[in-house]
């Protein structure tokens, strides 16, 4: 038990002899009863002592010159801190009833008459000393209890916080586990189709039509795998702030219109009523990323809308924003899911056998890309089976007059001669066959040093260079080609699996003209080759 300070007794008497007699009498029991005795010669002196100390009891002489005992008692009890100190009046004569009443009105708890009987004094003082010690002990226990309560409250808050954090981590881990299971499902499906189609091509007796269908399956499923990888990489870049936007003034309505035409041309919207209402609205944005946003929103509507449903795509200007809205009549979004639809890996359905498919990262990517453009994306739904609406808002800019592009000019010698530098045997063979199929004259090399020799010997118009080459990498190949007067005018296109902004910077610093991320879509590759062939050589 913590140590309790000794209670204090104050003796107030203007007579020195009486004061000495009382203090001496009390002092002989002080050690036994564990208290201290203090003395005061006047009412003013008593008030000073009360300001400095707390007392278990005050023995106060009634008849004192100047400030008598009643006035002193009144002044002591007028102060909040000393209002409850018990006072025993000491008087040399028997007090009549009026004096007793006056004393009690001024806070007296008892009277002692002189000459004081020691046993009576001891009995009275011992009671108040014991009471003071008990009160002090209770106060300390109350303080300890309050401190303990504070500690327990803090501990409870910490435990509650830790429980919530643990639950959050468990939810995140569960979401990640579901995502990995979904990723395995989404990767195995196209890989299975590709493997089966490749095996079918090699079987004897397969018709030409069967071979063509197998080839289309391989191409379609390879593109699907590429989109999955692109989505994963794009989300990673977006979350880490490493997406580099190539921003130009553009009319959002035209971009959205072109995207919808692609859906119609490829037959992806055949089973739906696809309605568009597109008003012009100019923004400063990256056309590739904005097309990605639009496609993800439309894909989401198609994915969660049964065949025969209606999908409305609108663009308009509203104050300082250009707005894109995609509304569907599909399954809708549950109220508990609505606040989380843009969180990573969240989907309306998590079963592996669901018809919709997908990794649950498309809307997360949409939100991040919108934020990178200085815009926002919001979702709204009235509940299950009541459809949903996604609304994109982007900062509006003034209308831009676009100069007509110059007509493409073709070289008089036909298609450019192409050098392919690629260390992967299968990739090199397939790319060469594909380019030959499109009418290009192709020379291939398996590493960087062989590529440099081929460039001097073959003198191509354009080189496709893999970055991760053995011996010397693609960066060094580009630097050496640019440093040699015989090869410095070759157009250089980097082929790499690295697509971060830092990778693009390194590619351009090494001397490349363009940067393509594997797997490369054949139409995109043909467009880039054609564009590079039409650009004048570097000075």
UniProtKB/TrEMBL annotation:
<dbReference type="Pfam" id="PF00512">
    <property type="entry name" value="HisKA"/>
</dbReference>
<dbReference type="InterPro" id="IPR001789">
    <property type="entry name" value="Sig_transdc_resp-reg_receiver"/>
</dbReference>
<dbReference type="InterPro" id="IPR003594">
    <property type="entry name" value="HATPase_dom"/>
</dbReference>
<keyword id="KW-0175">Coiled coil</keyword>
<protein>
    <recommendedName>
        <fullName>histidine kinase</fullName>
        <ecNumber>2.7.13.3</ecNumber>
    </recommendedName>
</protein>
<dbReference type="InterPro" id="IPR004358">
    <property type="entry name" value="Sig_transdc_His_kin-like_C"/>
</dbReference>
<dbReference type="InterPro" id="IPR003661">
    <property type="entry name" value="HisK_dim/P_dom"/>
</dbReference>
<feature type="domain" description="Histidine kinase">
    <location>
        <begin position="182"/>
        <end position="398"/>
    </location>
</feature>
<dbReference type="InterPro" id="IPR011006">
    <property type="entry name" value="CheY-like_superfamily"/>
</dbReference>
<dbReference type="Pfam" id="PF00072">
    <property type="entry name" value="Response_reg"/>
</dbReference>
<feature type="domain" description="Response regulatory">
    <location>
        <begin position="8"/>
        <end position="129"/>
    </location>
</feature>
<dbReference type="InterPro" id="IPR005467">
    <property type="entry name" value="His_kinase_dom"/>
</dbReference>
<keyword id="KW-0418">Kinase</keyword>
<keyword id="KW-0597">Phosphoprotein</keyword>
<dbReference type="InterPro" id="IPR036097">
    <property type="entry name" value="HisK_dim/P_sf"/>
</dbReference>
<dbReference type="GO" id="GO:0005886">
    <property type="term" value="C:plasma membrane"/>
</dbReference>
<feature type="modified residue" description="4-aspartylphosphate">
    <location>
        <position position="466"/>
    </location>
</feature>
<dbReference type="Pfam" id="PF02518">
    <property type="entry name" value="HATPase_c"/>
</dbReference>
<dbReference type="InterPro" id="IPR036890">
    <property type="entry name" value="HATPase_C_sf"/>
</dbReference>
<feature type="modified residue" description="4-aspartylphosphate">
    <location>
        <position position="61"/>
    </location>
</feature>
<feature type="domain" description="Response regulatory">
    <location>
        <begin position="417"/>
        <end position="533"/>
    </location>
</feature>
<keyword id="KW-0808">Transferase</keyword>
<feature type="coiled-coil region">
    <location>
        <begin position="128"/>
        <end position="172"/>
    </location>
</feature>
<dbReference type="GO" id="GO:0000155">
    <property type="term" value="F:phosphorelay sensor kinase activity"/>
</dbReference>
């Amino acid at each position: 038990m913590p140590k309790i300070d000794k209670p204090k007794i104050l003796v107030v008497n203007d007579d020195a002899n009486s004061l000495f007699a009382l203090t001496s009498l009390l002092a002989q029991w002080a050690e036994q009863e564990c208290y201290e005795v203090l003395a005061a010669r006047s009412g003013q002196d008593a008030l000073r002592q009360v300001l400095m100390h707390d007392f278990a009891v005050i023995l106060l002489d009634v008849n004192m010159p100047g400030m008598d005992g009643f006035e002193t008692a009144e002044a002591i009890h007028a102060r909040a801190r000393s209002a409850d100190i018990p006072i025993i009046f000491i008087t040399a004569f028997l007090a009549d009833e009026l004096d007793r009443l006056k004393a009690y009105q001024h806070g007296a708890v008892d009277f002692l008459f002189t000459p004081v009987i020691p046993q009576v004094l001891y009995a009275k003082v011992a009671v108040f000393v014991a009471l003071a010690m008990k009160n002090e002990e209770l106060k300390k226990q109350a303080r300890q209890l309050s401190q303990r309560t504070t500690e327990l409250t803090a501990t409870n808050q910490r435990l509650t916080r830790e429980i919530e954090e643990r639950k959050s981590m468990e939810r995140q881990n569960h979401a990640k586990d579901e995502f990995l299971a979904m990723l395995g499902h989404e990767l195995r499906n196209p890989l299975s189709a590709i493997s089966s189609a490749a095996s079918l091509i090699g079987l004897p007796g397969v018709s030409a039509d069967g071979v063509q269908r197998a080839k289309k399956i391989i191409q379609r499923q390879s593109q699907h795998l590429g989109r999955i990888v692109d989505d994963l990489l794009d989300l990673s870049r977006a979350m880490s702030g490493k997406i580099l936007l190539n921003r130009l003034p553009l009319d959002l309505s035209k971009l959205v219109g072109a995207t919808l035409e692609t859906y119609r041309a490829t037959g992806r919207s055949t089973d739906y009523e696809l309605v568009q209402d597109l008003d012009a609205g100019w923004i400063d944005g990256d056309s590739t990323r904005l097309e990605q946003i639009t496609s993800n929103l439309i894909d989401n509507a198609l994915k969660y809308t049964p065949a025969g449903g209606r999908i409305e795509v609108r663009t308009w200007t509203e104050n300082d924003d250009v707005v894109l809205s995609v509304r569907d009549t599909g399954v809708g979004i549950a109220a508990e899911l609505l606040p989380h639809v843009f969180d990573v890996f969240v989907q309306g359905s998590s079963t592996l056998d669901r018809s919709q498919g997908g990794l649950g990262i498309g809307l997360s990517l949409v939100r991040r890309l919108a934020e990178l453009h200085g815009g926002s994306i919001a979702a709204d739904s009235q509940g299950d089976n009541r459809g949903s609406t996604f609304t994109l808002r982007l900062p509006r800019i003034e209308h831009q007059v676009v100069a007509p592009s110059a007509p493409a000019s073709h070289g008089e010698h036909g298609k450019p001669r192409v050098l392919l530098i690629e260390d992967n045997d299968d990739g090199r063979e397939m790319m060469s066959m594909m380019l030959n199929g499109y009418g290009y004259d192709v020379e291939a090399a398996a590493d960087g040093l062989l590529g440099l020799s081929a460039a001097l010997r073959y003198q191509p118009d354009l080189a496709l260079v893999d970055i991760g080459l053995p011996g010397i990498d693609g960066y060094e190949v580009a630097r050496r080609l640019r440093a040699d007067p015989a090869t410095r005018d070759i157009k250089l296109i980097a082929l790499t699996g690295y697509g971060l902004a830092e990778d693009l910077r390194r590619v351009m610093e090494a001397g490349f003209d363009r940067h393509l991320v594997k797997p490369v879509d054949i139409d995109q590759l043909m467009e880039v080759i054609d564009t590079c062939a039409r650009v004048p050589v570097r000075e």
